[in-house]
Design brief:
This protein has 126 residues and is of the alpha+beta class. The protein has 2 domains: 70 residues, no CATH class; 55 residues, no CATH class. The chain contains 3 helices and 8 strands. Strand 1 and strand 2 form a beta hairpin. It is globular, with a radius of gyration of 18 Å.
Length: 126
């Protein structure tokens, strides 16, 4: 059901379908109330990237949650090299470091990306 919407194969002439996962994500991160009237929401989520044919994942954090709980010291780009029934293989492609600081969550972060590398492959069983 929901998984099908996030993992649907999208043809070049169906780019409008990307809006479905975007809308679902916005709804899931919206504030809501439980039966007792307590407000709550999810602070983030991870979902497959339809644009990259599910060969990568999107990590989404609410800006206020990220600003209050995290400091970005470095970034890494990882490549999925193989997926089997119970194991995924990834390798490090590049490292990056933020330049300066963000004063507001809506500001873009400048990143100093180091040259690409051919990192070792890590196998993760699940």
């Amino acid at each position: 059901m929901l998984d099908d919407l996030f993992t649907e194969i999208v043809n070049d002439n169906e780019s409008y379908k990307y809006k479905v996962s975007n809308a679902i994500t916005r709804c899931m991160l919206a504030n809501t109330m439980d039966a007792a009237g307590n407000q709550f929401s999810m602070n983030g989520m991870i979902y497959p990237s339809i644009v990259n044919n599910m060969n990568s994942y999107n990590l989404l954090l609410k800006p206020i949650y990220a600003v209050n709980n995290f400091h970005i010291a470095s970034l890494q780009t990882l490549k999925i090299t193989e997926v089997s029934n119970n194991e995924i293989s990834i390798k490090l492609v590049r490292n990056g470091y933020p330049i300066g600081t963000k004063k507001h969550p809506s500001e873009q972060l400048d990143i100093n990306w180091l040259p690409e590398i051919d990192g070792h492959i890590l196998n993760i069983k699940y």
